[in-house]
Amino acid sequence: MGRGTMARLEEMLDQAINGTFEERDYNETRLSRLETRWKRYLALSQVSQRRTREEQERVRGLISNISHQTKTPLANILLYSQLLREKEKDPELIPIVKKISDQSEKLDFLIRSLIKSSRLESELLVLHPKVQSIEPVLLAAMEQISDAALKKQVSLSFEGTDKAACFDRKWTEEAMENLLDNAVKYSPAGSRIEIGVTEYEMFTAVSVKDEGIGIGEEEQAQIFRRFYRGREVSQEPGVGIGLYLVREIAEKQGGYVKVKSKRGRGSVFYFYMARNGE
What is the DSSP letter of 218? Predict the structure, then answer.
């Protein structure tokens, strides 16, 4: 292959990247035929990209519509069920009213979680990671989960940290809340949850260690799937979307999540964030 042909191929690739490719006058040479095929490929790629954008717009509209249409009915159901719980005195009706309230809250949580995950998947919400201190995020997440921990008599241990990482504040706090909520939910009364931060060469990792029921090795690859519920926790409250969101958030900002666990001996979840934005 001659230097002229190689130069033209490099030029074609550069123009394709820049979006400026134009086919030269056609003739019967092999290079000219290649230019024609290259132009067709780029045209098809542009059509595919346009269809993807149109599909994302439809998803955006659908998510917005679902959020809007369900907000008021669910808020009313939650309000009326709370009023019933406060006023109902019939001992036979009290457990029924409680079930209505519990299921309403579960439905509200499920819809909100689905909207969050759908927005992340469809690129409708873009994370904006920047290098910042980790401690404020962890303290905020611990504050959100403190009532549940107190109610279950589970203590949260965090010694503080001066470490930083590159992350989106809002969504990383969401991930930390999910990890802590999961730890509290599956920990026995009187146990302790330890939150730590470790700095590595390329990543900074937040660890959440509990003394709960643990996870069998055969299930550890599945727990981050959407709607997955382990056999031993199927009767516990939850919809199986918290850890899925944690993984999505980690990956969207250049990190990852992993777990170390043994059944009956607790779990440690690690949330890795890049140390810088490069």
Answer: G
Of 266, 263, 228, 267, nearest in space to 247 by CA: 228
Most distant CA atoms of the chain, gap in Å? 92
Task: List CB contacts of 262: < 8 A, sequence separation 6 or more.
Answer: 214, 215, 217
pTM: 0.64
- Backbone dihedral angles phi then psi of residue 214, each to the nearest 5 degrees: 75, 170
How many contiguous H segments (helices) and E segments (strands) does the chain have? 6, 7
For residue 175, give both structure tokens. Answer: 């991930």
| Residues pairing with 257 in the sheet | 271
Q: pLDDT per residue over 44-72, tens digit each?
A: 666 666 776 667 667 666 666 676 677 77
> SS3 for 236?
coil
CA 207 to chain centroid, in Å, comes to 17
Beta strands at 164-167 and 155-158: parallel, antiparallel or unpaired: unpaired
Beta bridge partners of 205: 198, 272
Question: Alpha-carbon distance 244 to 222, whole Å?
Answer: 10
Nearest to 208 by CA among 276, 142, 116: 142
